[in-house]
Design a protein that fits this description.
With about 270 residues, the protein is α+β, with helices and mostly antiparallel strands. It contains six helices and ten strands, in the order H-E-E-E-E-E-E-E-E-H-H-H-H-H-E-E. Helix 3 crosses helix 6. Its cofactor is Zn(2+). Belongs to the FPG family. Keywords: DNA damage, DNA repair, DNA-binding, Endonuclease, Glycosidase, Hydrolase, Lyase, Metal-binding, Multifunctional enzyme, Nuclease, Zinc, Zinc-finger.
Amino acid sequence: MPEGDTVWRTARRLHQALADRPLTGCDLRVPRLATVDLAGRRVMDVTARGKHLLTRIEGGLTLHSHLRMDGAWRVYDPGERWRGGPLHQVRAVLSTADHTAVGYRLPVLDLLRTADEDRVVGHLGPDLLGPDWDPQEALRRLLADPARPVGEALLDQRNLAGIGNVYKSELCFLMRVSPWLPAGQVPSPQRLVALAKRLLEANKARPARITTAESRADRRLWVYGRAGKPCLRCGTPVRTDGLDPSGQERLTYWCPACQPDPASPVGPTD
């Protein structure tokens, strides 16, 4: 699933391509929006809110999309071949005189009044890359249930918005805590919140995410995607578990030596 930095970059790319320009074409390929035509309206703004994308359009309308696991927006020049996937996966096409934005495999696509945006994003916690970032409020929410595993608490967008499975694993490693450690037992939890903000800020404009300060493709991340490989810090094989702390089918990566905890599952190493 794309994380907050990826969604931020997507919003910036869409904003640069569409904002302050009238739409010359609009094709929303979901049944409830099939008859909607926004052509002629000006795109006012495209912004990210956590993992949500809000395209604000003249007339007080917002096109809301969420990428979930494998959704994507691509921007093309006039006449450029679309390369984001087969045409049957296209869910939205927004065109201006200069660019065409194509949304692929979008599991969430809604049109609502801009005044009603809170209906779809009002539940989110402080946005790590947004103007509403409030580290104290994020910390309060993160620790509201001190018995909750910290990995699960980090993934909950109601606590702080923008963290996905990659940053969950990397943050727990950098803090030297197991993803299954109760949030209330994390040493210096305010440092965890500050580190989350720093990592996403550092990576929001990068094409390749880096948490190790190394640019080599196989050493950019400490543990995520490194199952069975030596820990970059201590050499112990990195473990992975097929379920995230809330039981969903996402992988959690950790080093059992750097992040010891008796509650950690004994997962496979490959």
